[in-house]
Amino acid sequence: DQQVKQNSPSLSVQEGRISILNCDYTNSMFDYFLWYKKYPAEGPTFLISISSIKDKNEDGRFTVFLNKSAKHLSLHIVPSQPGDSAVYFCAASAIDNNDMRFGAGTRLTVKP
Amino acid sequence: EAGVVQSPRYKIIEKKQPVAFWCNPISGHNTLYWYRQNLGQGPELLIRYENEEAVDDSQLPKDRFSAERLKGVDSTLKIQPAELGDSAVYLCASSNTGYEQYFGPGTRLTVT
After folding, report:
1. How high is the pLDDT of residue B71?
2. Which of A79, B5, B12, B109 is a plausible cystine mate for B24, CB 3.0–4.6 Å?
């Protein structure tokens, strides 16, 4: 069962514009959400996270929004840079369970 | 601070052969995870250790997979015998918070 879904396998944006990556989840027990970035031949690297008690968390050019009623979160990157080109994974876990579930990833391409 | 170290980075074996992967987590991280990532998918948990104890191995195919984390530091994941469907990237991650996980570069296994 896929409890975390990233329905867009790829996204292409122009440098300087906003990138919006989306993620949906089905398990209402999830209370912590993370985004990871992955370059080829490297492991995923932690990017930003958000607790279920918040609806927004910002870190520089990266902002994660959480809509609990819709079971939806999104990652905004603004302005997008060519170095942001990578695969982005959404992940979720529950406070009483360290079992983190990942989405299938979205490949972001930022064109110069 | 050194990151999560994994070896080998790449391994090609014939089916029915054994293979082993090694992971050294970030110093001080008590929780260690092994994931398998198939092409086009997100990482899927195989086993989680808290110190030297395997606390979640429900997704580990125990007929052919085994893991150990002696002394609660580095860990080894073994497959014997390997099957064609085992071809994937095997990722090791560690954590000291239970939430943000830090991944190694992974081992890409090809079974022919």
Report:
1. 85
2. B5
The predicted structure's pLDDT at residue A97? 65
Task: Output the pLDDT for position B99.
Answer: 79
Q: State which residues form the domain around B53.
A: 5-9+16-98
Nearest to A64 by CA among A80, A47, A79, A81: A47
Q: How much is the pLDDT for B41?
A: 93
pLDDT in tens, B60-94: 998 999 999 988 899 999 999 999 999 999 999 99
**Which contiguous run of DSSP H or E holds residue B90?**
strand B88-95
| Distance of residue A59 Cα from the nearest chain B Cα, in angstroms | 15
Could you tell me the domains of chain A? 4-111 (2.60.40.10)
CB contacts under 8 A, B 69-88 vs A, are none
CATH number at residue B51: 2.60.40.10
Number of folded domains that form chain B: 1
Mutate to test the interface with B, among A97, A100, A107 (most CBs of B within 10 A): A100
Average pLDDT, chain A: 94
Question: Residue B48 falls within a domain, yes or no?
Answer: yes
Does the CB of A94 have a partner CB in chain B at under 8 Å?
no
Cβ contact A89–B40 (<8 Å):
no
Angle ∠(A31,A2,A107) on CA atoms, nearest 5 = 90
B97 band by pLDDT with thresholds 50, 70 and 90: confident
